[in-house]
Amino acid sequence: MKFSSISLFALAALPQLFAKETMIRGKEPPLDKMTITQKFFSLGLAFQPEMDELFEEKLPTIEKLFDVHLNVEEGNDIVVGKANNRLQGMAKSYKELKDSIENTETYQEYVGVKSEAFEYRAFVEKKMPLVEEALMEAVHSNQVETKLLEDSALYTLTTGGKRLRPMLCLAAFEAVAGSDKDSSMAIPTAVSAELIHSMSLMTDDLPSNDNDEMRRGVPSNHVVYGENVAMLAAGSMVGYAFSQVLEGTEGIEAKVLVQVASRLARVIGVEGMAGGQLMDLLAENKSESKREFSLVDLEWIHLHKTASLIQYAVVAGGILGGASSEEIDAMEVYGHKIGLAFQVVDDLLDMEQDEAVGKLTYPKLLGEEGARAEAAKLIAQSKDALEVFDKEDAKILYAFADFLTERANK
Asked: DSSP string of 380-409?
């Protein structure tokens, strides 16, 4: 990983951050510059070379990450002294993606080809630092009394994730406005999609829902902060999401922002994720629901629980980019199909685990080969929907479809 032009000022400020962690562990803080630099990069928090000159501005964001995971009740052996675990979780997808891109570049240089799936990875590599920083800035509390809710929300936000919803929002903006246009005005809306996704993870994991104690390799939010705080923090993230769209967006007419916010409201409610989660709970408790669930039911569940938010991210990005009615219709079809395809691929990747707990999935109803065929069909349909756009401008949306194909064939 290239060190580039990160300033000595920024490096000089890092020892105090690592000192917080090591003092909790009862060790001397590593103060030499080389150790600090190596540890910094090992956490995957290095920004792209072209971003390095802005690093001093980003230092408070990194400090905030440390504070969130160190300002916890002393004696909590899950979290105290383990800032590295939380930071590594936040950076995991970014770091792994960087490694995969480097490997892919080497491979492509050898075979002399450039796949569309690689285009998506390169796009994520470029946008990820901007999205991560915006996510950190989106969650804040100006009152000491509610700091715990901020910490709880940030805990889930910073434990990793593919950030595909923000990426699709930015890609859709460029598909409409042009790939040469600055998509920064769409970042707040992109962030709103990720905030709602994180909210859904927090509520899904609760004992009254899926009862999952682990998420992305770390204890679930309610395990660390308690069910009551986790539920309140999840609710606060809905507010943060709307605030991002309506207050955080610059350079977009108010009537356009209202249109985006209206779609977000529908996605969160009974016409979207809440309805999908209800049906999912009923499907997992057949004895209580007293009904059999079919492929039509499964598609309904994931169209609402999973695909609706992905569709929101895509359509909202298009609307912000100035999409026509025809282009919005195309974005809706793309979001619908690619959202369902994402779920089918996820079911294929989690097949053994889901089978062990008797979960209703595409492989369970269609068989492994049938599920692969369904994913391929949905991916093809998503690409067909993009024909109204300039192929160069929409290349990242095409590339994401190819990225899913790669995942499905692992």
From this structure: HHHHHGGGGS-TTTTHHHHHHHHHHHHHHT
